[in-house]
Amino acid sequence: FILPQIEVLFRNNQYWLAVNVFAEDLSKLTIQCQKTIQLLQSIQWCDGSLEQSGDDSVDDCLSHIRIIHKSSIPTRDQWPEIVQRALLKIKAAEFDKVVLSREVVLTMSEPVSALQLLGQWEQKNRNCFSFFLQSPSGAFLGCSPEQLFSRAHRYLNTEAIAGTVLRGSNNELDLQLEHQLKNDPKLLREHQMVVDFLFEQLADLSDTRLEKEPLTVLKLAKVQHLQMPMKARLKPNIDDADIMLKLHPTPAVCGSPRKQSMHFINQHEAASRGWYAGAIGTIGYDETCLLYT
């Protein structure tokens, strides 16, 4: 877990600034507070004009930047071989599903502003959760459609998101693809794996039956997913660590069964996932919200 030194939050149409200071004793705490104040005074605050100036403004800031080189791990030639190995394992009933990933490295014609890139993603994916972490080595950012879980006191909300088709170029084609998403046996089976996993994992943590809401379709800029929100009331003394150990990773980012699919991933993925497919968010005594990266 990483505790950010400075957080900017947007809640109830208001921006909030939060500062986290840690020290082993009072004297060191005073020094840390003074350093934090100096840091805050050195920050150059923007006026939000980029956000307010319309959707085209972010696109214009990045439109002149070009990809000059692209590489991936595994390569395009290696990818079918790994997929074939996974299919053989599924055929042999070693696991039912595995979610494979690959690393893509893009070399750009000039440096890219991480915040401008995030702004572009936000404008194109309004139904996603945005995250941004800045570190000395770079920035980690994204727009995730999937919430791992949120908790308010003893009340838990989570969701099963799985099964994917493209968006259509027009409304008619989009509805045809949505119909395919809702009726394709393979996609429905993929989604049901996540639903069954959540029911099984949360059974020991909740004192009520997990409530399922109607199956819906989550539409994003390029793709659409099957989505089913769920909620439950937790048993007393269940904390966020208990929930994390039960839920992470779900079949949506790992596979099913979890142990066997994780073993295959560790054996065959050459690139480290790092923070990808991890969890990011805020943790508190009364409320917690974590989403997948």
Give an overview of the whole structure.
By secondary structure, the protein is α+β, with helices and mostly antiparallel strands. The chain is 35% helix and 30% strand. It is built from nine helices and 15 strands. The strands form five sheets. Strands 8, 9, 10, 11, 12, 14 and 15 form a seven-stranded antiparallel sheet that branches. Strands 1-2 form a two-stranded antiparallel ribbon. Helix 3 packs across helix 5. About 3% of the residues have low confidence.
Features:
single chain, alpha+beta, two-stranded antiparallel ribbon, 293 residues, 7-stranded antiparallel β-sheet
SSE inventory with pairings:
Elements: E1 6-11, E2 14-19, H1 26-42, H2 49-52, H3 55-62, E3 67-73, H4 79-91, E4 97-98, E5 103-108, H5 114-124, E6 129-135, E7 138-144, E8 147-152, E9 155-166, H6 171-183, H7 185-202, E10 211-212, E11 216-219, E12 223-233, H8 240-247, E13 255-256, H9 258-268, E14 279-283, E15 287-292
Antiparallel strand pairs: 1-2, 3-5, 4-13, 6-7, 8-9, 8-15, 9-12, 10-12, 11-12, 14-15
Helix pairs in contact: 3-5
User: What's the pLDDT, averaged over the residues?
Assistant: 89
Give the N-terminus to C-terminus distance in angstroms. 14 Å
Low-confidence stretches: 49-57
Q: Percent range for helical residues?
A: 25-40%
What proportion of the residues form beta strands (DSSP E)? 25-35%
Estimate the global geometry from the Cα principal axes: globular
Q: Based on helices, strands and strand pairing, what is the structural class?
A: alpha+beta
Strand runs, count: 15
